[in-house]
Structure formats: structure tokens, C-alpha cells
């Protein structure tokens, strides 16, 4: 009996030290982990984003404009709420300021190439020109548009803003498409 107990104990220690065949195979197939101080490699197709939280002249939330850049392209995704129904000119503006009530501090349309205004202008367009936004009876609207300008210009030293105008943009008249007063504004900030 004593000999049987000793054999069982010895066998237990031997088996515990061996590990299962699956564990040994998994350990051999798993590469060693990178050191904790090593930074992860940058993804060449990584997306950079900046978001403008839109507000009306009275400070009420009015939605978001998100700029996403990947592979040299800049896409604006706009979602608004609480705005008057109808067609509204929407543009990226050159300066990252939104001083109410007129938002004139946002400057003119983002136009690094010195082009004319409007998507239908035969002499080109501002980098920040976009199609009109349609706002429904519920005060909501959405729009996606690929800009002509490079994303980096949105976050230059003086920043940039996104502005919603009171009226539709005629897409031709320089410098603003006769789109009327500025009714909502937000500063682009990296997210």
C-alpha cells in the first residue's frame, strides 16, 4: 500500500510537469509579445478625424460635422438638429472661431487655392464648398460630401469652422453663393 501511494504521488508530479500536448503546441506557435515600451506600428490606411460640435447663435446644440481623412481624401459627414426646415448652404470656413450671434469670426469659406465659389462655377470651387443641406420639418438633416481640399488644412494654426447658413447656396455666386446669414457654427477639433 505504501508503495502504491508513493507511485501515485510520483506519477502526479511527473504528469504535472509535462503539461498537455495542446499547451506545448500552442506555446510553440505563439510568437513572443512585443516589449511594453514599443509603440504599435502606424496603419497606413488609418483614418484621421475632426469633429465640429455645431451650436446656434443662442448656444443651442445643432448637431455635428465630422471630417474624416483617409488615403488623401477628406469626407464631411453632417448631421443637424433643431434647425429651420428647408435648403441651407453649408461650408467649411477658414478660421476656427464661432463668436455668436453672427459667426463672422469664422472668416470666409475655406479656400487655400484662391478659387471662385460654387460647385457649379466653371472657374473651380472653394475647398470647403458643399452641396446644400436639406432640413426636414422635424429640424433634422444629414449630408455626406467629399471635399476638394486636404485634411491637414482644416487643423492648421488658426483652425477652421463649419457653418450652416440660413438660405440655400446658389453654387455660383462668389464669394458665398448668396446663402444668407450664418445660423449655426462649430470648431473642428481632432477626435
Q: What can be said about this structure in brief?
A:
The chain is of the alpha+beta class and 191 residues long.
Counted beta strands:
9
Mean pLDDT: 76
So what's the overall shape?
Answer: globular
Radius of gyration: 29 Å
- Helix content percent band: 10-25%
* N to C succession of SSEs: HHEEEEEEEEE
What's the SSE blueprint?
Layout: H1 2-18, H2 21-29, E1 48-56, E2 61-70, E3 73-80, E4 86-88, E5 90-93, E6 133-135, E7 141-147, E8 161-165, E9 182-190
Antiparallel strand pairs: 1-2, 1-9, 2-3, 3-7, 4-6, 5-8, 8-9
List key phrases describing it:
disordered N terminus, 14% helix, two-stranded antiparallel sheet, 191 residues, seven-stranded antiparallel beta sheet, single chain, 9 strands, globular, alpha+beta, 2 helices, 30% strand
Written description of the protein model:
With 191 residues, the chain is of the alpha+beta class. It is 14% helix and 30% strand. The protein is built from two helices and nine strands. It has helices at 2-18, 21-29, and strands spanning 48-56, 61-70, 73-80, 86-88, 90-93, 133-135, 141-147, 161-165, 182-190. The strands form two sheets. A seven-stranded antiparallel beta sheet has the order 5-8-9-1-2-3-7, with no helix packed on it. It has a two-stranded antiparallel ribbon with strand order 4-6. Strand 2 (61-70) and strand 3 (73-80) form a beta hairpin. The chain starts with a helix and ends with a strand. 31% of the residues are buried. Residues 1-45 have low confidence and may be disordered.
Amino acid at each position: 500500500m505504501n508503495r502504491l501511494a508513493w507511485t501515485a504521488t510520483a506519477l502526479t508530479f511527473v504528469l504535472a510537469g509535462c503539461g498537455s500536448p495542446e499547451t506545448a503546441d500552442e506555446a510553440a506557435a505563439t510568437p513572443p509579445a512585443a516589449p511594453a515600451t514599443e509603440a504599435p506600428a502606424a496603419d497606413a490606411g488609418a483614418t484621421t478625424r475632426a469633429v465640429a460640435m455645431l451650436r446656434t447663435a443662442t448656444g443651442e446644440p445643432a448637431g455635428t460635422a465630422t471630417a474624416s481623412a483617409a488615403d488623401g481624401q477628406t469626407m464631411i459627414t453632417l448631421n443637424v438638429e433643431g434647425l429651420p426646415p428647408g435648403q441651407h448652404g453649408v461650408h467649411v470656413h477658414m478660421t476656427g472661431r464661432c463668436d455668436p450671434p453672427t459667426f463672422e469670426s469664422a472668416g470666409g469659406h475655406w479656400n487655400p487655392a484662391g478659387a471662385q465659389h460654387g460647385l457649379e462655377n466653371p472657374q473651380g470651387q472653394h475647398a470647403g464648398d458643399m452641396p446644400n443641406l436639406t432640413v426636414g420639418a422635424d429640424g433634422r438633416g444629414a449630408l455626406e460630401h467629399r471635399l476638394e481640399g486636404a485634411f491637414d488644412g482644416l487643423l492648421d494654426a488658426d483652425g477652421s469652422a463649419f457653418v450652416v447658413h440660413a438660405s440655400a447656396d446658389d453654387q455660383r455666386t462668389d464669394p458665398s453663393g448668396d446663402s444668407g446669414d450664418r445660423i449655426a457654427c462649430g470648431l473642428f477639433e481632432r477626435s
